[in-house]
Amino acid sequence: MASLQLKQLVKSFGDTKVIHGVDLKVDDGEFVVFVGPSGCGKSTLLRLICGLEEATSGDLLLDGQRVNEVRAADRGLAMVFQSYALYPHMTVYQNMAFGLENIGTSREAVQAKVDAAAKLLQLDVLLQRKPTQLSGGQRQRVAIGRAIVREPKIFLFDEPLSNLDAELRVSMRGEITALHRRLGATMIYVTHDQVEAMTMADKIVVLRAGKIEQVGSPLDLYNRPANRFVAGFIGSPRMNFVPAAMAGAPAGAHEVGVRPEHLVLAPTADAFPLAMQITQVEQLGGHALLYGMLPGSSTAITAQVAGQHVAKPDEAITLHAPRQACHFFDPNGLRIAGLA
User: Helix, strand, or coil here: 139?
Assistant: First the structure.
């Protein structure tokens, strides 16, 4: 286990700067998730940490020691890739043992480490199979097992669940978070899926265009987004944004944001009304998603309402946004504290 600190880390490819002076601290034992849209620099940042890319400037410290010039193989980190990167001609056991054998670990120690990791990941009955005989989830567990046997200072995960179907992604999320609890290890996890970030992280780092927009716990980011970008990125379905004038917002506010799950059909005290022309309804059993537009505008609205709501496309309804659930943003997109 280890702590990590990035100080004014910059990465350029030729004249193109992709990481812009990132400062970040990851504490020992934390599960930190880098999240952001495609092209925001999250995978590049992970590659800088593990040593697969060289920083243009700035400092990268492991347990307080600068490691910019330390080779990837000597940093004591382990990467789990999106593609699994398993050797197809090797068995599960051989895939997990390969790295240890390469550094001269004794046969007895290799056996003990692989057996322990296999038992932890419920792979012990699959050790003689080859990757082609495994499901996607089992292959991902083998890739994680290969990292565990190395006993790394930090585990690095680069979108490890992207190739799995939706149901398997959910179960693997649970497996990885349970593994973190059992090992108490420092883990850094990259994803573009904000649901993964919200459900797995101790701390989320929201990135956009190579810069950090906000760092905090999942509920910090959900309840107190620093700006319009974070507010729209964290939460599913995404936050609604309406012009301040439509919402009767206080002076200084340019836009008002309200999450779909906070909109209600019944009038409530200290709430502003939103007229909505329904365009689509998704019935999900326990709740329904109503999609529509504010009449006479191009502003799209999504509402998540409890139960099996009976509504039809083109129906006009009125939603209500409780003031305490609203977020107010200035003309620069920064959240205005203290107005809700």
Answer: helix
Q: Where are the alpha helices (DSSP H) in 6-87?
A: 42-50
Q: For 156-207, what is each residue's pLDDT tens digit? A: 999 988 888 888 889 889 989 998 999 999 999 999 998 999 999 999 999 9
Are 117 and 148 in contact by the 8 Å Cβ rule? The answer is yes
> Any residues with CB less than 8 A from the CB of 173 and at least 6 apart, and which?
161, 196, 199, 200
Structure tokens at 292: 């529509």
Alpha carbon distance 178, 172 (integer Å): 10
Whole-angstrom distance, CA of residue 192 vs CA of residue 36: 5
> Residue 198, SS3?
helix
- Spatial separation of the C-alpha atoms in residues 131 and 154, rounded to whole Å: 25
| Structure tokens given for 278 | 């329904």
CATH code for 4-225? Answer: 3.40.50.300
**CA 18, CA 260: separation in Å to the nearest integer?**
33
Per domain, the residue ranges of the chain are 4-225, 237-329
pLDDT per residue over 103-156, tens digit each? 899 999 999 999 999 998 989 999 999 999 999 889 989 999 999 999 999 999
The closest of 47, 4, 10 to 25, measured between CA atoms, is 4
237 preceded by cis ω (within 30°)? Answer: yes
The superfamily (CATH) of domain 237-329 is Nucleic acid-binding proteins (2.40.50.140)
Nearest one of 276, 271, 272, 268 to 246, comparing CA atoms:
272
Give the burial string for 260-274 (b: 16+ CB within 10 Å, else e): bbbbbeeeeeebbeb
Q: Which two tokens stand for residue 60?
A: 């990268």
